[in-house]
Amino acid sequence: MRPPVRDPEFSRTASELADDTDPYGPEVGSLPENDFSQADLQGVNKTGTTTIGISTAEGVVIATDMRASLGGRFVSNKNVQKVEQIHPTGAMTMVGSVGGAQSFISTLRAEVNLYEARRGEDMSIGALATLAGNFARGGPFFAIAPILGGVDDEGNHVYSIDVAGGVMKDDYTVTGSGMQLAYGHLEGAYEEGLSNEEALTIAARGIKAAVERDTGSGNGVYLCEITEEGVDIHGHNEFDELI
Fold first, then answer.
1. Which CATH homologous superfamily contains domain 44-236?
2. Confidence (pTM)
3. Which amino acids are annotated catalytic?
């Protein structure tokens, strides 16, 4: 017969337990902190970026520039696709650190696929925006501020998601380092009831306005057109054919 195990951790008396406020509660650990220095952050690939989302009468149009940089001072890539399809009728932009944005998009795309597999229907764009905000607020995604655009049974939607997980819906929105320049153009050019073709021209002009002055944006434009039929993304190195 084996002798009883006498572990002092499990055989404490009432007086010994008195100093423990919750002896039966779970032991909660902690996640390691991101100990990034400013020098470390200078070597992170960032999109810099200008991204635009416009809701139209026919769907949604998204436009982004094509430049990635190191610390905003050195161009590390001239052909970055900063808008990705994450839903049968939805897409999201990349803003901030490239690694964080790529991980964020992959995670959301997986959640959309799981939702469809489990329920036999597509997730609504509003639910996807809420999920994205929750992930941005509580997840390990570093320095992101994307735009989500999509079409569902309830209409055409454009959401901006900030680094703290705030979700805001609007007729049009701009994020990134060139946002002030692009917003100036959109304020004068946007009107209700735009067609997708009209919005594509306006969005391309907004990106061009940003790349002229913002060092974090440049090298062309990716245009994304979303309708109830799906998502179409195509890149252009020159603006002349678009505006």
1. Aminohydrolase, N-terminal nucleophile (Ntn) domain (3.60.20.10)
2. 0.80
3. 49
